[in-house]
Design a protein that fits this description.
By secondary structure, this protein is α+β, with helices and mostly antiparallel strands. It has seven helices and five strands. It has helices at 2-32, 76-84, 91-96, 113-122, 134-137, 145-157, 161-175, and strands spanning 36-42, 48-54, 101-103, 108-109, 130-132. The radius of gyration is 16 Å and the shape is globular.
Length: 176
């Protein structure tokens, strides 16, 4: 049932946001020549997939978690994209490609060994990663891998259709 909602809301979001996504794409081309950022992430059953985002940092930025980048430099437009969470909108394609769901644990990077270990130990990789979830609305991030893995597991155990909509709504409210 959730997969049907994932498809519906992804298509709806991409349709409604398409003029804005095209504008972001064009601004990204002018700002740094490459508006789309692709990165390998750990997904369902620990299989890797390519996560899509709008680029918010210069092209030559090291591909690690942003909390590990010293002197992180966002582009001028990238700062806006991050603040509004619009940099995440291309992940709606990841949902359509069935690599992700709207609500689930955020996919981690291949080099986040501690988080991978903690998630594997708790069975978090048995579900698809998501764009948002309990950790995101609670401001828990990759800096605290044990807490993040525990929070992910709690969300998975308590996932219902009502919670699915609750996480989406709370994420939207947090953005605004």
């Amino acid at each position: 049932m959730i997969r049907i909602f994932d498809i519906f809301f992804s298509l709806l979001g991409l349709s409604l946001l398409s003029p804005l996504l095209i504008l972001i794409w064009l601004i990204g081309i002018f700002e740094n020549g490459s508006p789309l950022f692709r990165q390998q992430r750990v997904g369902h059953n620990q299989k890797t997939f390519t996560l899509l985002k709008f680029r918010t940092m210069p092209i030559k930025t090291k591909s690690v978690g942003t909390h590990l980048i010293k002197d992180m430099k966002l582009t001028l437009f990238g700062y806006f994209l991050r603040r509004t969470k619009l940099d995440e909108t291309p992940q709606l394609f990841n949902v359509l490609f069935n690599n992700m769901t709207l609500v689930g644990p955020r996919p981690c990077l291949l080099n986040q060994k501690k988080l991978i270990k903690e998630r594997k130990k708790r069975g978090v990789f048995k579900v698809k990663p998501g764009i948002t979830g309990r950790a995101q609305i609670s401001n828990i991030n990759m800096k605290t891998p044990i807490l993040l893995a525990k929070t992910d597991l709690k969300m998975i155990k308590e996932m219902t259709l009502l919670n699915y909509f609750n996480y989406i709504l709370r994420t939207i409210l947090q953005i605004f």
